Amino acid sequence: MTALAEGLAERLEAMGLPLRADGRLPLPEPEAVALRLALAKAGEGASLPVPVLLSRAPRVELMLRREAPAGEPLLVGRLRHALSARALPLARLTTAFGLSRSEARLAACLCDGLSLSEAATELGWTQETARSCSKQLFARMGVSGQPGVVRRMLASAVWLG
């Protein structure tokens, strides 16, 4: 399968799922069983896509579906993995949104779903420091609250590298 998808091995490795030397995924037993069952179900011609969880941390899901794009039936798999704003380079965030380094760190935490209190703990800040920084962050990004930060970041090109 990896020979058909250019760059798949590198993408899987970047997601934390490096292939073994024989080209197979080294999955824990529950995920390996789920993948085998999903492959069998999709191979039988299931009318709906068959989902399978490949990894919980980081979360990586595979959607399998039997398709016939050129008249020949194929088993097609599409991967989806959780985005992590905290994994983005801070320089990319500071440049894209005109933020200070501290504001960029806070924005990444908020985008990853942390509350302001959780972000303060993660960053080693006091609650008041997080509140103060969040006010500056909201003003610079032109949003009125945490959901606005998330929307702006998710709709931006910072994810494209």
UniProtKB/TrEMBL annotation:
<protein>
    <recommendedName>
        <fullName>HTH luxR-type domain-containing protein</fullName>
    </recommendedName>
</protein>
<dbReference type="InterPro" id="IPR016032">
    <property type="entry name" value="Sig_transdc_resp-reg_C-effctor"/>
</dbReference>
<dbReference type="InterPro" id="IPR000792">
    <property type="entry name" value="Tscrpt_reg_LuxR_C"/>
</dbReference>
<feature type="domain" description="HTH luxR-type">
    <location>
        <begin position="96"/>
        <end position="153"/>
    </location>
</feature>
<dbReference type="InterPro" id="IPR036388">
    <property type="entry name" value="WH-like_DNA-bd_sf"/>
</dbReference>
